[in-house]
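re: ur question from yesterday

yeah so i grabbed the chain u mentioned. its 324 aa long if i counted rite. heres the sequnce exactly as i have it in my notes:
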Amino acid sequence: MANVNQNRATILFVDDEDRITALLSMMFRVEYNVLTANSGQQALDLISRQRVDVLVSDQRMPGMTGVELLRQVRDIAPNTMRLLLTGYSDLSAIVGSVNEGEVFRFLNKPWDNHEIRQTVADAVAAARASRTGPAVKPPPAPAPAMQEEQLAIEQQVEVLLIDDNPAGLKAMNEVLAGRHKIRSAASLDQALMTLERRDIGVIVTDARTGETDMLGFLRAVKKNYPAITTVMLTRSVDADHVIQLINRAQIFRFATKPMRRSVFQLAVQGAVKEHLRLKANPYLVVRYQVERRPSSEDASPLARAVARSLTRLKALFGFKRAAR
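ran it thru and got these structure tokens back, copy pasting raw so excuse formatting
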């Protein structure tokens, strides 16, 4: 790209509609180096030739969907922050963007100008922060002896299962038995007590526990202890609610209900590995920064209760809150 300012971040907008990429380019070209592409393959060609800090892709495009593009970019350019722009409440695409593309945020069409500017700025900050350490890409597969050592480490990670249904807790315990240290909670109060007393690495929960929407709880946990990763169990829930869970609580993986044993195991295993990576490389936690919300939301009784409960945990394990 001509006239590249090396001091600026580079943003790539991908949409099969020229008017969309043209409008986004006009909005951002004063602050950033802006690239545009009209297809997933064109975007991949650009990313293969130069560093891209933030990718913003439409979901519904001919030839390659946004989710597929995000998945490939995660593999070839893992430091690039990935955002999905969509005007459709397609739950399967939303879940796929998390499990396969590890999306940073969702943006709605039509977008709010202030929101998209703030979200892109947050993604740029995360990209720059994560470049201060080693590459984000996972290391090559270890030798057998190292695999055994890594497995032993993963088995020590404590996984908190939250479900007000005893049968649900029992089923999850049976699937994960022998793989990790399992803690169970049948209520939000029990979950908070466990977080106070144990070094939890992964939380597995439904979108609701009893009458409680878990969004506020998970947001407060992620904001105060960002190395904890979350696996969300989901049925045919509202797609907009799932987007909120991702943007505001940074859910790491989704697993479907009724639970499929192999899928659930892989989701938890992936969350355990990511938790260990975040504890070893604290600069990466900015990649899971929760969406900025009005201060009143973080001052809610639930948010304050979680923050109090996590104070001891943070003091014990010395994990600092991600820079805001």
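noticed a couple things. The first helix runs from residue 18 to 28. also The longest strand covers residues 200-206.
anyway ttyl
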